[in-house]
Amino acid sequence: MSQLSGIDFIAFDLDGTLLDSVPDLADAADKTMRALGRAGVTVEQVTTWIGNGADILIGRALSQSVDVDPDLDPALHREARALFDRFYEEGGHEKSALYPGVKETLAAFHEAGVPMAIVTNKPAQFVPHLLEEHGIAEYFVDVIGGDTFPLKKPDPYALNWLLDKHQITAEKMLMVGDSRNDILAAKAASCYVVGLTYGYNYGQPISESNPDIVLDHFSHLAEVVKLGG
């Protein structure tokens, strides 16, 4: 297995990388559509629609397509987003779960003194509770949501902010994600990037986005990252 040496900082995506969250997202999106008198949505549909933040997810649900209808009524879109946020929060994220090996692997990096961050396109208001709920909040020095900064992945803004804040060079940072947005953001920031095959990537193999390393299991990350140096 390939190794990356000299990694001093690791940034992780959340949904589809650490957390299998699509059942709760699909529930909230389905309730939203039905509350608006529109056709419901399925887990299978939502799996291919997430990754670009809640606004685009809701736009796709309203459009019943990965391509958002350019003629969508902005007022309807705002109403649907507000309903989605309410339903998602009320659901308590009860169906979401960490992927196998996530907690143990994060704990090992934390024990080794590796600073880590969350860089997700999920709205920031939901992220701290999810990390606490799954017992991994203590592992992260920074938590960046999709609306923390003016730009979200695939823009490298958040990764560049982390590089600047922690005064590290790009070749010492690793991004770990499951979506082409993660790969594109990391490449734009000149960071190394690991792509995970089990997450949500619009139905496309993550290998097509050409990450530095492709992994099938999160726990294999411990074999890839040669710390320090």
From TrEMBL:
Pathway annotation: Organic acid metabolism; glycolate biosynthesis; glycolate from 2-phosphoglycolate: step 1/1
Keyword hit for Magnesium: yes
Catalytic reactions of this protein: 2-phosphoglycolate + H2O = glycolate + phosphate
Active site: D13
NCBIfam families named in the record: HAD-SF-IA-v1 (TIGR01549), HAD-SF-IA-v3 (TIGR01509), HAD-SF-IIIA (TIGR01662), PGP_bact (TIGR01449), PRK13222.1-2 (NF009695)
Pfam families: Hydrolase (PF00702)
Gene Ontology molecular function terms on file: metal ion binding; phosphoglycolate phosphatase activity
GO annotation (BP), single: glycolate biosynthetic process
Biological function: Specifically catalyzes the dephosphorylation of 2-phosphoglycolate. Is involved in the dissimilation of the intracellular 2-phosphoglycolate formed during the DNA repair of 3'-phosphoglycolate ends, a major class of DNA lesions induced by oxidative stress.
InterPro entries tied to this protein: HAD-like_hydrolase_sf (IPR050155), HAD-like_sf (IPR036412), HAD-SF_hydro_IA (IPR006439), HAD-SF_hydro_IIIA (IPR006549), HAD_sf (IPR023214), PGP-like_dom2 (IPR023198), PGPase_prok (IPR037512)
CDD domains: HAD_PGPase
Name the record gives this protein: Phosphoglycolate phosphatase
Organism the protein comes from: Photobacterium gaetbulicola Gung47
GO cellular component terms listed in the entry, alphabetical order: cytosol
Binding-site positions, Mg(2+): D13, D15, D178
Family designation: Belongs to the HAD-like hydrolase superfamily. CbbY/CbbZ/Gph/YieH family.
Cofactor section: Mg(2+)
Entry EC number(s): 3.1.3.18
Record keywords, A-Z: Carbohydrate metabolism, Hydrolase, Magnesium, Metal-binding
